[in-house]
Input
Amino acid sequence: MTLSFRSTAAFMLLLTLPLPAFSEPMHAQYLPPDELSVREGEPEQQQLLQITEYSVVVGSQRQSNQQPIPVTSPLILRLKGKPMNKGATIADVLIHFDGESKSLKKPTYDEPSRTLTLYYPATQYRVLVDLLRNEKVYCQFLSYANGHVWADLHTGSVRAR
Output
């Protein structure tokens, strides 16, 4: 079978193109610039979830075995959705809000429960609920061999009105 000149030329052009060192994660356009070079190589794990439903949990607990008796009221967003990338196993996202700490815990993904846990300052609660009410929202989690992790909630591209 003989290839046409045009097909042969196109094939030769493809062979001359440089191959990328690694493939970018899905939704890479939502990652901030890596100014500190902490994202080394390809992510070991990527979880991408399109959020389809959410619920708000406002708790109240009292630990009676401590003196003085602290009363806490945790605020949690529970997100559910459908995995968007091949190999993604994520099923739930728990977002804890902290109004007191000066630093937040790092995002964690628990394989057995298929749950990603995120921590945000309490000041971000209203922003996140507004996004969930008004936009198509995605959650992504990336982990790298050097221990770096990244997690975010983001919208898809939205046209300005």
Observations:
- The beta strands are 45-58, 61-62, 71-72, 75-83, 92-98, 108-110, 115-121, 137-143, 149-155.
- The two ends are 54 Å apart (CA to CA).
